[in-house]
Write a structure and sequence with these properties.
α1 links the parallel β1 and β2. 44% of the residues lie in helices and 15% in strands. It has eleven helices and twelve strands. It binds serine.
Length: 325
């Protein structure tokens, strides 16, 4: 029997993870928590919880007999560069608070997403390995390196099993773009489907590693269920599925929407993207806990368009119904 607490449950990963955990463990085993909730109506218990408040986390763990935590509450890279102090406070202190509260009440596992942002400019950018050096140039990256180090510390000192993996950009139609640097990709899809042109904040030739959200959710569930003895690292596993540049994505989307056009107006996010790897070596994740991405870039583009078109039609229908009840 598990009781899983999710922090930051309304964010990009949380909204996709809840249904997967409910399917596997039943809805009474999943508790969603965040500082605010979106309109999406998850059929699980929801608790307002701020990860910067350690006592509040302790109360939830104790009162709900939480056995495991997916700690997803964090400020993403683009927002973090605008508000570095707040980002350290939420991502750094928040992670410390979750680990400390979990240690106090003997939680079994904490799963935390790390990021390609842990890497910096001192390494070769292609096929980056888990143990390549991590000297990030962004505050977001600094907080993720800190989380990885805390994961090792709390696992070896307190016997909680802290686990995770470094995600690349995650492409999803379920959540709107949420202040990540890689989110231009989702935004480009949304503009194309809505027949609007798009202004991209990255240069056309900026390669970044990416993956489709079902593969990210599958990875989280797999590492959650992995045998402790099969894990060589805590949160240092790399995962990804493919790499593309904004202009490559544009060409693929244009095949479906020939009139779609993109302008490029790079801003501060270009520096963030340029400090990150172009591709990752994820072989250790395959070997240790069976990571196996199913979606290629072409599958992803097709599936995104089918689902965003469906959502657009549903929204149009809702609008018509409210205008002509
Ligand atoms: N997708 C994240 C971001 O862009 C990277 O971890 O912030």
């Amino acid at each position: 029997m598990v009781t899983i607490l999710i922090t930051g449950s309304s964010g990009q990963i949380g909204s996709d993870l809840i249904p997967a955990l409910v399917r596997k463990y039943g809805k009474s085993s999943v508790i969603a928590s965040d500082i605010t909730f979106s309109d999406r109506d998850y059929d699980v218990e929801k608790i307002r919880l701020d990860v910067t408040k350690k006592e509040d986390i302790e109360t939830v763990i104790k009162e709900k007999s939480v056995t495991d935590i997916f700690h997803l509450g964090a400020i993403l890279s683009a927002s973090a560069e605008k508000h570095p102090y707040e980002a350290f406070f939420v991502n750094g202190n928040g992670t410390l608070n979750v680990m400390e509260a979990a240690a106090k009440y003997s939680v079994n596992r904490i799963i935390i997403p790390s990021s390609i942002a842990v890497f910096g400019n001192d390494i070769a950018k292609e096929r980056v390995k888990p143990m390549d050096s991590t000297h990030p140039t962004t505050m977001y990256g600094i907080t993720k390196v800190l989380s990885e180090l805390l994961a090792q510390y709390y696992t070896s000192t307190y016997g909680i099993s802290v686990r995770g993996m470094r995600f690349p950009g995650i492409i999803s139609y379920e959540t709107p773009p949420m202040a990540g640097t890689t989110d231009y990709a989702v935004d480009m899809f949304i503009h194309a489907v809505n027949h609007e042109n798009y202004k991209c904040y990255l240069k056309p030739d900026t390669p970044l590693p990416m993956m489709y959200f079902p593969d990210a959710i599958d990875a989280l569930v797999k590492i959650f269920e992995a045998e402790e003895r099969s894990l060589r690292y805590r949160m240092e596993y790399n995962v990804s599925a493919f790499t593309f540049t904004p202009s490559e994505l544009y060409s693929l989307i244009k095949e479906y929407y020939p009139d779609f056009s993109v302008e490029y107006e790079p801003d501060y996010r270009q520096n963030i993207a340029e400090s990150w790897p172009h591709s990752l070596d994820y072989f250790d994740a395959v070997k240790d806990w069976g990571y196996s991405p199913r979606f290629s870039l072409n599958d992803t583009v097709k599936d995104m368009i089918v689902n965003l078109e469906r959502i657009r039609k549903e929204n149009d229908m809702k609008k018509t119904l409210t205008q002509n009840p």
